[in-house]
């Protein structure tokens, strides 16, 4: 069956350097600054991080909870969030972005990203993803996150394609497995050059 739509993840695919060690370093510095134990920042904030990933709270709610749970001042919250968004957004994977742009108009294209409240604004001002593709689905705006099959079904519905006519690219094996289970062609992104080659081969094989 021919592929009609191509869907990319953001972190680890269109954005790179979004890695766990950078988050650990960010939190370690702030834990030392706030007099917290190692790992305590995430422990205190985990319910809020989770709520923000599903759009169950606003950015203002997040900021207020940081003041309440971590004893931060408003100025410290602003400073932390600025650093957090720089970590979160990483840097653009230029070769992957160039490929993604080139797929239109032959294919319908979309972004499907597990995200945090505020991500659309932050990534838009840095990378203008809306100019690269036809559709962007942020999971915090939908209240459903990968690998929940409902988020893939939503992408198919909005792109008006059957799962077997979609190619999905992600850096998480569990998300790839979930897509495969629905019949979606899926490619695990580990290294840019190889992933680009895999995408091109898959599109050629299903042209």
Automatic annotation (TrEMBL):
InterPro entries: HAD-like_sf, HAD-SF_hydro_IA, HAD_sf, PGP-like_dom2. It comes from Tengunoibacter tsumagoiensis. It comes from the Bacteria. This is Haloacid dehalogenase. Pfam families: Hydrolase (PF00702).
């Amino acid at each position: 069956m021919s592929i009609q739509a191509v869907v990319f993840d953001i972190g680890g695919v269109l954005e790179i350097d979004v890695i766990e060690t950078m988050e650990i370093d960010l939190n370690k510095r702030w834990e030392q600054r706030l007099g917290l134990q190692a790992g305590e920042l995430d422990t205190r904030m985990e319910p809020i991080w989770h709520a923000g990933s599903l759009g169950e709270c606003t950015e203002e709610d997040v900021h207020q909870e940081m003041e309440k749970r971590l004893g931060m001042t408003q100025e410290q919250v602003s400073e932390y969030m600025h650093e957090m968004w720089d970590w979160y957004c990483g840097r653009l994977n230029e070769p992957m972005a160039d490929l993604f742009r080139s797929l239109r108009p032959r294919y319908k294209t979309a972004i499907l990203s597990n995200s945090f409240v505020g991500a659309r604004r932050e990534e838009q001002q840095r990378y203008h993803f809306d100019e690269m593709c036809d559709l962007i689905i942020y999971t915090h705006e939908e209240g459903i996150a990968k690998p929940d099959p409902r988020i893939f079904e939503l992408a198919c519905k909005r792109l008006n394609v059957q799962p077997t006519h979609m190619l999905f690219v992600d850096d998480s094996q569990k998300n790839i497995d979930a897509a495969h289970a629905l019949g979606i062609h899926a490619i695990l992104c580990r290294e840019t050059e190889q992933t680009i080659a895999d995408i091109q081969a898959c599109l050629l094989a299903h042209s």
